[in-house]
Design a protein that fits this description.
Layout (H helix, E strand, L loop, with lengths): L1 E6 L8 E2 L2 H47 L5 H28 L12 H15 L1 H13 L8 E8 L6 E10 H7 L4 H11 L2 E3 H20 L3 H18 L6 E8 L2 E9 H9 L24 H11 L1
Antiparallel strand pairs: 1-2, 1-6, 3-4, 4-5, 6-7
Helix pairs in contact: 1-2, 1-7, 1-8, 1-9, 3-4, 3-7, 4-7, 8-9
Amino acid sequence: MTCVAFTRFNSKAEPIPLSNDEYERVAYSRKLLLDFMSFQEQVRQLILRLHEVERFQLERALYDLLVAAMDYHEFQESRLQANNVVAAYLNTMTSIRDQATNIEAPKGEFRFREKFRREWDKAKSNSATFRLACRYRVYTQHQNQATTGITSGGGWDEEMVRCETHITINASLSEICENRDIRKTERDEYKEIFGEEIDVGFLLRSTSSEIAKITKSSIKEIRDELDSSMNFLTEFIDKYSRLGSRTISLGVIKDNRFVESFVVFDNLVERARDLLNFRLLENYELHFVSNRDRGHERSPKLRSKFVKKK
């Protein structure tokens, strides 16, 4: 069998013979990028899940502003909706841990999975918040409902220039500790931070940033290999593209016909590069989305002066 490259979307293109080494390098580089993207998209999906939690809180707060007193049944329905979005987040958190084990070098040139697990365990040791999130994740796998309820509140500030309504998703610290057989010293550590009712939104926001930091640190283990693979694939596409087509099929000639094995193309490499951006992820606990004019540090002061004059 002869390894070849074939330009897609071009009826005049002829198969281009490849050496076995070149064919294997393309296959390896492509697989590394796909494995990396599959893992990194789980991290991106975690942020999307967090957005669903925050969207739920904002929408319920807007509803509470219009309907000042939600009855018992409305609160229970809201609790069920909160369960759905929180459980989805925690399931994605589990997927990240599982997906990290799939990135490995064929000859053991790097140790991504070991690095990721070490960083994960290190974060659990250093951060009580992240440790509780891991406890909470396991707890929800053994419960029908992850949350105990929601709290509605708000009111005017001291200067009577702004009124705020908010919704908080709650989880019971005592139930988690009893279910997971958590010792008193560890429980007291959590209680000092969260009290008896855990603010789930705060917990998940902090967890998202911690996981992004773990991921960024772990990616350093394979960053050189990723860069090398992306550069190689870009050069390969440049070399073998014909008549403007930059989608290259690779395969073998068998029984005088081309049998495709896989495809490489520009967007594959571009997507991998985009997923290496951690600017927002690692600082996520510092970013808030709301209807308030507090985008910059000085904005509240300027706005409050303006309101006073008015």
